[in-house]
Amino acid sequence: MSPSEVSRPAKPKTVFDRDAEWDALVAFAGDTRPGPGLGVMSGRLRQGKTYLLKALTAALGGFYFGAQPAAEAESLRRLADELSQYTGTSPPSPWRGWEDAVDALLALGDRRPVPIVIDEFPELVRQSPPLPSVIHSAYRRLRETDFDNRARLVLSGSALPVMHRLFSAASPLRGLTDLELTLRPLDFRQAARLWNIDDPRLALLVHAVVGGTPAYWGYVGERPPGGPGGFDAWVCRTVLNPRTPLFLEAHHLLQEETDHWDRALCHSALAAVASGCSTQGEIAERLGAPLTDAARCLALLRDNGLLHGEPDAFRPNLIRLRITEPLLAFEHAAVWSYRSALEQQDAGEVWRRMRPVFDSAVVGPHFAQICRDWVMDFAAPTVFGAHPATAAHGSLPDPARSAGRDAQAEVVVRGPTDTHSSALLSVGVARWDQVMDLHHLEQLRHLLDLLAAHGEDVTHTRPACYSGVGFTSALRAAEVNGHVVLVDLDRLYQGR
């Protein structure tokens, strides 16, 4: 459904960023053409869906209903009461079921386009499985008979597996959907602006702990660290402080996202990934669990958006898993072994023991992921000679290394896929805590020789070095001569 020309309210100043999402919602909700519209918004918890949808209904005089875990009868009573308050009329006669409720909601659009939001829609479907079919029938009926109705219903939910199933290609609701939005965490540059952090090193450290989840900004009292030297104190008074919401947020997040499925196994699986296990077999071995049980657990975490799997850049049959939520990675890599100590000892002393683990097991891998994100979202096409299609971790057996040790490249960039293969645009290494020198470039050239021996076309492949500390003058000279691409923190946060 493309919008007609209507007056659109400006995004409230209290809504940070989300400009594209706001414009899409307002265009959908204010479309004056006849016929009911259906929109879908999904996204993990804490990303600001409710905040954005409440702002939408407030700006356009719409109706908002937030579903809760409740029996069908209670949900219907709550909806009837809130609808009567919205319309200023007496509560309707008891509804016979969701058929009456859906008809009453869509009737709000009989006179004008009006946004009607049902937030956490999966909570209603859990207690009332026929509800999607009821909505489908109501829409078909209105679109065939009532050409003046302009209801703009938005169904929102955080239970990603349920939302995917309800609006998959096989679902009848999919064919009625005019708008689909996914609210994702803020990217690393947006997160730096949210936290009002100008120093790129500090911004990356904070992002390695709380990521781009907007709600966490409010959880810590909207206080950024007081400069790079204040990071340690900030961690101690927020995430490691038992009196703050963030202290147990990782546990709550896992419980809510996985719907109480075997939480112990899920925690252990995340701890295995955080420790460096990246394949299903490695994780199962670390857990001491049958491969089938590990596979079910990992599938659940992936379906809920907590794990992401992507093919190895050099061995596409090898799927590598990584934790998508930085707070969960921070918890399971650094905090997991120190929880009891944090409840009994000074947080600063415990953090001093944790800090080396944080630097190596959390910040290092996180920095590599930020580098891959920069390639995909911010790097100019001229950097690699074409628009990147993928940026992934790559590994390759190296005869020059001891048995079992592969040659690694944290940032492997490929171009668009053709009928045979995808062009290898760049092979890069990322080092958070090392000043990079010519020997890093030599490592990359050695890796390119290995790839060529495996039949990869490396004719136009550009070596790249990504550093959180900087580069020697010799490596800078190699950059000037066009031998290597160099990316530091300033370029990650401000450049292309």
Give a structural overview.
The protein is of the alpha/beta class and 496 residues long. The protein has three domains: 19-182, P-loop containing nucleotide triphosphate hydrolases (Rossmann fold), CATH 3.40.50.300; 189-366, Winged helix-like DNA-binding domain superfamily/Winged helix DNA-binding domain (Arc Repressor Mutant, subunit A); 378-494, Trna Endonuclease, Chain: A, domain 1 (3-Layer(aba) Sandwich). The protein is built from 22 helices and 14 strands. Strands 2-3-4-1-5 form a five-stranded parallel sheet, sandwiched between helices. A hairpin with a 7-residue loop joins strand 6 and strand 7.
Strand order of the largest sheet: 2-3-4-1-5
| Count of helical regions | 22
Overall, the morphology is globular
**How far apart are the termini?**
35 Å
Short summary:
The chain has 496 residues and is an alpha/beta fold. It contains 22 helices and 14 strands. The protein is 46% helix and 17% strand.
